[in-house]
Design a protein that fits this description.
Length: 154
């Protein structure tokens, strides 16, 4: 498999939207509060356009034979109260047909390279607790648990 990783251009927001729609469908298993219409909404479209064209952001797309099969969207994350400079993995996904073939690792390597260019010393990602596959992927790539997000229905 000859995979090429390219920087996303502002016109590529629809590619990110399409690939992320698969992530959203997968996340339904872990979050019954997901709005399936958000991606195509005005707010959703604006979000995807900012991912590929916003300041302090970077997005990479993985291609196989000129077909987009994965992506990662990054941004500088300012916690304010922490000393380190962080890069957040805002969104990441690989087409279901191509998962567990090293594409996520390739995208992670590009993320680390860009983070180092930004003089960041840490990557940050949030994953659903119930998404064991995602948690295992991140742990395999050197991430460790540093907090817990919690919800309460009221």
């Amino acid at each position: 498999m000859d995979i090429i990783i390219k920087s996303a251009k502002s016109k590529d927001w629809k590619i990110i939207q399409r690939l992320n729609d698969q992530v959203i469908l997968n996340d339904l298993e872990n979050d019954d509060d997901i709005d399936l219409n958000w991606s195509a909404s005005e707010e959703g479209i604006k979000s995807y356009q900012e991912i590929v064209g916003g300041d302090n952001r970077k997005c990479y797309i993985a291609y196989l034979n000129n077909e987009p099969i994965g992506f990662v969207a990054l941004s500088i994350k300012d916690f304010g109260y922490r000393k380190s400079k962080y890069i957040e993995i805002e969104k990441m996904g690989v087409d279901q047909e191509f998962r567990s073939k090293g594409i996520g690792k390739m995208l992670m390597d590009e993320s680390i390279r860009w983070a180092k260019e930004q003089k960041a010393t840490k990557l940050y990602v949030s994953a659903y607790w119930g998404n064991k596959r995602a948690r295992d992927f991140y742990k395999k790539n050197g991430f460790y648990e540093s907090g817990v997000e919690m919800d309460k229905k009221i």
